[in-house]
Design a protein that fits this description.
The chain is built from 13 helices and no strands. By secondary structure, the protein is mainly alpha-helical. The protein is globular and about 55 Å long.
């Protein structure tokens, strides 16, 4: 299995063995692993607890508008409208950031991982509405969700599943990444969760002004 994965990821078996033994991965290796695993390269850096390179980083934090507002808006739309909203988002020019995002103060842990994955989509890590409406997460306050990253609030399987749906992961995969599970069998989900997660990823580089334009356009989308 290791040999097959090394071949698919174009990594020498010796380098893969080093990673499995706990060696620090290089930027190039993380990008290759992301392709092989089907995980965005930007997320691979988060999972590895490393800073996301400027060329991969989202626009976080944009003010006053961010992708979280788009997610909450899309949650109230039928699939056809979400598709047209996503088409508009993808038509806008990408604004690559030229400065690194501000550092966070999260201690390493599962709560920090999911919080950083949220900001990797320019979604506030305290966005309780997105977790509730899209992922079927607990009905809690923004401040409660915000404390998951610091570890002051315990990350539970229900939170993990909600984050997975907003982020575009299979819940079981995020359980494997965070070590917090199992996946709740009865947790509801938005019917367009995957579509909304894709919209969020496509919008992650937008500026506040671009997001405002997209939000204003929702009034004209039939």
């Amino acid at each position: 299995m290791a040999a097959a994965f090394a071949r698919d990821s174009e990594l020498p078996e010796s380098e893969l063995a080093g990673l499995l033994a706990g060696a620090q991965p290089s930027s190039e290796i993380l990008r290759r692993l992301g392709t092989a695993l089907g995980i965005p390269a930007a997320d691979m850096f988060v999972i590895a607890s490393l800073p996301v390179p400027d060329d991969l980083a989202s626009a976080w934090p944009t003010k006053p508008w961010n992708v979280g507002t788009l997610v909450e808006t899309a949650a109230g739309m039928p699939p056809a409208q979400i598709a047209r909203l996503d088409e508009l988002v993808r038509s806008l020019p990408v604004q690559a950031r030229t400065t690194p995002p501000p550092p966070d103060t999260y201690p390493d842990g599962p709560g920090a991982v999911v919080s950083r994955l949220m900001t990797n989509r320019n979604i506030p890590p305290y966005d309780a509405k997105a977790l509730y409406f899209v992922g079927g997460g607990p009905l809690v306050s923004y401040s409660t969700v915000g404390q998951l990253g610091t570890g002051k609030v315990t990350l539970t399987p229900r939170y993990v599943t909600a984050f997975a749906r907003v982020l575009g992961y299979e819940p079981g995969d995020l359980v494997a990444i965070t070590g917090v599970g199992p996946v709740p069998e009865d947790q509801p989900r938005h019917r367009s969760a995957a579509q909304i997660a894709a919209l969020a990823w496509n919008a992650r580089h937008l500026t506040s002004d671009q997001i405002r334009q997209v939000l204003e356009s929702t009034r004209r989308i039939p």
